[in-house]
Design goal:
single chain; 999 residues; alpha+beta; 6-stranded antiparallel sheet; 19 helices; 23% helix
């Protein structure tokens, strides 16, 4: 092995030990003959990537990486596509035409059997090698390789007949089917792969570009803070990780290195959620010290000077004695002068760990651009329409724009029952009824469209408008701040965007007034997106296109539509009265229909096999958004109908609400809870999400003018009481997070019947939704500063004050998420696809790990890492990096709230590049300047007799000519200002005033 490959291998070993940062540059050199081109050829380091398992449900397998082998257990070999249903493969291989390759592999099998192995393109249409054949017998050797019980070793050599820029080496070993007469192996078989080698004997230039760290994130500073910054008037805290157990001095330095503020840290102590400060054993699982023993709090609340800064901590102790899995000292720091240094063993870059990322203090932290970008998520995920660059607010607009993906028309077959998985040809599906479901928003991971996910998102966007309307802050929704095709109409743009999904929901209403649950492919679509996986709608199955299906109507979907439509009706009134009436009519019709079945859904728990109107949680591969308890959804819908109509019938229903499954007793009428106990949650520390919607109804009642004073008092007290719980939890967390572990089991990320306590799937959604509660608490009649500071501090976690020193919002922060789990924003997997735009919020750490094969392939094992360390910035790490309309709707809400409440006036731009021309004949001057964006008027003033005197302020162009016959030789001081959105910036105009002397 040559030096380059040795360094790569060493780096891969270090990934497990270092949990290091995202990909960094280290180009590979020209290689000589007999070069190993696989990045990972054995598994001694406990890492599997880039080798991965793949299964098509209901086929199933499990794996672990131990004792130097990749060990796969076949649990169910029977899936829809025969031997292809169980696979083990390595991707991102480059094959050169005319090059000769040596292949070597080993497998130990607990049973005799057979498998198919090949090297070819991703689509399976081109193979350059298969089944240990050489060039002489390539076309004859199509039968599977026979595998004996015990050890098996194979060698082969071939010369490639094609260039393949994206190839994989795959093993197929599923069940029998059309091209596979027998099961490849019996269920229960264990296959142990080792020494997988692909050598290019021809030689040549092979440039891999970046050293791939597989999305592993490791802090590049032990000062953890909000990497965007802080408002001057709010409290400002950061956290610092160290072994030091006494307070430390810290300095705040400006961009020139000048010290502007000094202080002392406060020792918080251990914080096991953000890092492991000492070796511990929990439930027989060892968690090694991978961080400092202590977290210190850096409080600089009384420093309010606006500017850009860094924090430097005077620490000579640092962090030592760390270990991740079997690798020691991987996170240790070393002292050099006054700096504590750490070197990433993969990219060999060094970082000063006692100095922070740069951050700002100013009044525009969560500014209009963040609002634009977070809102733009919805436009870019619209279904059935071209996505035009004109309305894209960030990133590579030309690549993000597209017109070939989008399901238009989107026609789908209605299914009357829930099926865990369908055959690949949809022969077991129902094709009696087909409906048009064009429009709406996509989910990220499978291009399905879900009423319950969309319902939560529509409510959140509409509530953001209703909340800002109550405060008189609606200008941003109509002044062009938001980029949508509808921004030329008179309606608030945020309502226009929500209407896209709402009108799609109306298409999902069936003839009985119930609402179909979702639209999706009958089988899990390609990842990342391919043209044929989404462009064609009713294609011939020989080309492997998926069919589009509509899942059965459900109680949950129906209540979601009712609630959102009723809410929309009051918001659209006076803007589009016809649409407002349509919304209310749909809501009331469906309410009448579903109330006729009240005895069926008003139960503690319902199951789809008894009543298909309950959505199951178990999915067999595709999302279901299951919900077995819907009384909370009924309460939400009644609240919205009452807030819109004031009809006492709705009040009579909602006032009796009480969640049968809530052990805390908090989840009841006119209240919020901090213990979610329905949907897919059981005791989660939060107040609402897509599966627990009662809190949404309570918040709408808080904004309503139809609530009695007694009920309003109950609501206000409940909001404040729950907010106090979040504030208290934040005080117990070293990173100031309003969230804590929950015990989860059964529905996602873990094995059947298994339970685990840790951060849940979508942990960031709990953080930001709980921040919304703190924002509401601040808005209550007795609002306190503690709530506003709590809301801001909760956002600090999302933007970098966490165990990884990482911003979970793309494009925002010194070190921010880049590779979301999204079908189209998947450049890291397929260079032909675009990178993610800015303003996208990731789901965040999920310590359950069990069912995310990508994290397991990194060597992550459940229980061995702190909760906040269970993350990878990879498009394939679905359990931690998935994005969704739910997440971004909450980001929009909080961005709007923070900017409205605490953001100061945005500085108005002033004219620049001012030029002066003279006329000696007429003794006059003409000024010209560059156009100021969004300016509708310009003004000019002259300093005369000790005062600024306005000469003209209705200039519509970018030029001004003075009167004739000014006095030659006289010098004037002149200022030019612009009016933007009705405001003049005279201060900067005067600051940058110029002088002219008449010729």
């Amino acid at each position: 092995m040559h030096k380059t490959m040795k360094r790569i291998a060493a780096g891969l070993v270090a990934i497990t030990g270092a949990l290091s940062a995202a990909a960094a540059s280290a180009p590979m050199s020209v290689f000589a003959e007999d070069e190993q081109i696989l990045i990972q050829s054995d598994f001694e380091a406990g890492i599997g990537l880039p080798w991965r398992t793949l299964e098509n449900a209901p086929a199933r397998q499990d794996f672990d990486i131990s004792d130097g082998t990749y060990n796969i257990t076949i649990q169910n070999n029977d899936g829809p596509e025969s031997r292809w249903d169980l696979q083990f493969r390595c991707r991102n291989i480059i094959i050169h035409k005319g090059h000769t390759y040596k292949v070597h592999w080993k497998v130990n099998s607990s049973n005799e059997g057979e498998l198919y192995t090949k090297i070819g393109n991703y689509g399976g249409t081109v193979e350059v090698w298969h089944n240990n054949c050489g060039n002489d017998d390539f076309n004859q050797t199509w039968e599977c390789v026979k595998i004996a019980k015990g050890d098996n070793t194979f060698d082969a050599e071939f010369t490639a007949e094609y260039d393949l820029e994206l190839a994989d080496w795959a093993f197929h070993y599923g069940g029998k089917g059309q091209y596979q007469p027998v099961d490849c192996f019996p269920n229960g078989t264990v296959l142990k792969f080792d020494d997988l080698s692909l050598i290019d004997t021809t030689g040549g230039v092979f440039i891999d570009g970046d050293v791939n760290e597989w999305g592993v994130v490791r802090p590049e500073s032990n000062v953890r803070l909000n990497q965007i910054g802080y408002y001057p008037q709010l409290e400002k805290r950061a956290s610092y990780v160290t072994d030091a157990d006494m307070p430390l001095a810290f300095e705040i330095r400006d961009r020139s290195g000048n010290v502007k503020y000094t202080g002392k840290t406060k020792v918080f102590g251990s914080d096991p959620n953000s890092g492991t400060g000492k070796d511990t054993v929990v439930n027989s699982v060892t968690r090694y010290k991978d961080s400092g023993a202590n977290v210190h709090i850096i409080d600089f609340s009384d420093f309010r000077t606006e500017g850009e800064y860094t924090i430097f901590v005077k620490d000579t102790v640092g962090v030592s004695g760390t270990q991740v899995m079997g690798y020691k000292n991987v996170n240790d720091t070393r002292l050099k002068g006054d700096k504590l240094l750490w070197t990433n063993p993969v990219n060999m870059k060094s970082y000063t760990m006692n100095e922070s990322s740069p951050f700002r203090i100013d009044r525009q932290i969560y500014d209009d651009q963040l609002l634009r970008d977070s809102m733009n998520y919805f436009y870019q995920n619209r279904s059935g329409v071209p996505i035009e660059s004109e309305y894209i607010t960030s990133g590579d607009k030309s690549r993000l724009a597209h017109n070939k993906y989008g399901h238009n028309p989107d026609t789908a077959y209605v299914q009357s029952k829930w099926v865990r998985s369908y055959d690949s040809d949809f022969s077991d599906g129902e094709k009696d009824k087909k409906i048009d479901v064009t429009g709406g928003w996509y989910a990220a991971n499978d291009h399905g469209k879900y009423v319950v996910e969309g319902g939560f998102s529509v409510w959140t966007l509409q509530n953001a408008y209703e909340f800002s309307k109550r405060r008189g802050n609606t200008r941003k929704w109509t002044d062009g701040t938001i980029a949508v095709p509808e921004n030329k109409d008179n309606a608030p743009d945020i309502l226009d965007e929500a209407r896209v999904e709402l009108e799609w929901m109306f298409k999902m209403i069936n003839e009985d007034g119930f609402v179909y649950h979702s639209v999706q492919d009958h089988t899990l679509a390609d990842f990342p997106l391919t043209f044929r996986s989404i462009y064609c709608i009713d294609p011939p199955m020989e080309d492997n296109y998926p069919y589009r299906i509509v899942r059965p109507p459900t109680y949950a979907a129906t209540f979601n539509m009712i609630a959102c439509a009723a809410q929309a009706s009051r918001l659209w009134k006076g803007i589009d009265d016809d649409f407002a009436k349509e919304c209310l009519q749909n809501a009331q019709n469906s309410w009448k229909a579903i109330m006729a079945k009240q005895s069926d859904w008003n139960v503690t728990s319902g199951y789809y096999y008894d009543d298909p109107y309950f959505a199951p949680s178990e999915s067999g591969g595709n999302n279901n958004f299951g919900d077995t308890y819907v009384v909370d959804d009924a309460y939400w819908a009644a609240c919205e109908l009452y807030a819109t109509t004031g009809d006492s019938a709705y009040y009579g229903f909602l006032k009796n609400y009480k969640n049968y499954n809530d052990p805390s007793g908090q989840d009841k009428a006119f209240s919020l809870t901090s213990c979610l106990s329905s949907g897919e949650n059981n005791g989660s520390f939060g107040s609402f999400n897509w599966g627990n919607t009662a809190g949404l109804g309570t918040l709408s009642l808080y904004l309503s003018d139809k609530t009695s004073s007694a009920d309003r008092k109950t609501i206000v007290n409940s909001i404040q009481n729950i907010a106090d719980r979040y504030i208290f939890q934040m005080s117990k967390e070293g990173m100031g997070i309003p969230y804590t572990s929950a015990t989860v089991g059964g529905y996602i990320g873990i094995g059947d019947g298994d339970v685990y306590t840790g951060y849940e799937y979508g942990s960031n959604s709990f953080v930001i939704n709980n921040a919304m509660v703190l924002a509401y608490a601040y808005d209550t009649d007795n609002g306190k500063y503690i709530y506003r500071n709590g809301a801001a501090e909760a956002l600090d976690y999302l933007f970098g004050r966490n165990g990884l020193g990482f911003s979970y919002v793309s494009g925002y922060g010194d070190k921010a998420m880049k590779s979301p789990h999204h079908k189209y924003w998947a450049n890291s997997i397929n260079p032909e696809l675009p990178k993610a735009p800015s303003g996208v919020l990731a789901g965040g750490p999920c310590s359950v790990i069990y069912n995310d094969n990508y994290l397991r392939g990194l060597g992550y094992k459940r229980g061995t890492l702190a909760n906040q360390k269970c993350y990878a910035d990879s498009a394939e790490a679905w359990s931690v990096n998935e994005v969704s309309v739910c997440l971004n709707a909450s980001l929009v809400w909080m961005s709007s709230f923070m900017n409205d409440q605490f953001g100061g006036p945005k500085p108005v731009p002033y004219p620049t590049n001012i030029k002066v021309d003279y006329s000696e004949k007429y003794h006059q001057v003409r000024f010209t300047w560059d156009k100021v964006e969004n300016a509708d008027r310009y003004g000019i003033a002259v300093y005369l007799a000790g005062k600024w005197r306005v000469q003209k302020q209705d200039i519509t162009g970018t030029t001004y000519t003075s009167p004739k016959n000014l006095t030659p030789g006289v010098t004037y001081k002149v200022a030019i200002a612009a009016r933007v959105n009705g405001r003049w910036d005279t201060a900067n105009a005067i600051k940058y005033a110029g002088t002219v002397t008449i010729k």
